[in-house]
Each structure stands twice: as structure tokens, then as C-alpha cells.
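Hi C.,

You asked whether I'd gotten around to modeling the 103-residue construct. I have! Everything is below, sequence then structure, no commentary in between.
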Amino acid sequence: MNACAGASFGRADADLNAAYRRITGRLARDGAARRALAEAQRTWVRFRDAECAFATFDSEGGSIHPTLTAGCTETLTRRRIADLEAHMACTRDGACAAPLRSR
């Protein structure tokens, strides 16, 4: 179970990295937005890890803990991917961090 959960999280993490590369590519000409995204992403990773440490606290030291942690990190990672994709799908000029059209 631990191996399967870890592999599933690994796929989600790879998908997140791909989404992050797509959005940073879109922001290539906007250094300020790209720096803001990088800071948001670093902060989000710290949040995800802290949230999952809290959410799985009661299982700490148990054999199920790695499975629960991987499941939590995968769930939050998939949510982050959806957030990044929503930023990339936005088409409203002036209302999007990463609009379809370049600034």
C-alpha cells in the first residue's frame, strides 16, 4: 500500500511540475509575475507538507502513516494543479495572473 500510494503521489508531483513549467513558460516575459508565482509555489509546498503532517498526526509511527501522508499530499497536489490550470485558462484581460494573451 505504501509503495502504491507513494507512486501515485509521484505521478501527481510530476503532473504538478509539468503544470508549473507551462505557467512559468507563459510568464517568461513578465519577471515580476514569475517571481510572485515562484514565491507562491514555495509557500504552497510548505503549506502542503505542514497540512499533511497535521492531518496525519495521529498515525505518526504507524505502518499506515506513509500511505496516509502520500494520499494527503496527492490530494492537495491535484488541487494545486487545478488552481494553476484555472490561472492558465483565464481569458479576462487585467483579471488574470497568467492570461491566455500576453501582456
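If it helps when you're writing up: Residues 2-89 form a domain with the Substrate Binding Domain Of Dnak; Chain:A; Domain 2 fold (CATH 1.20.1270.180).

Thanks,
B.
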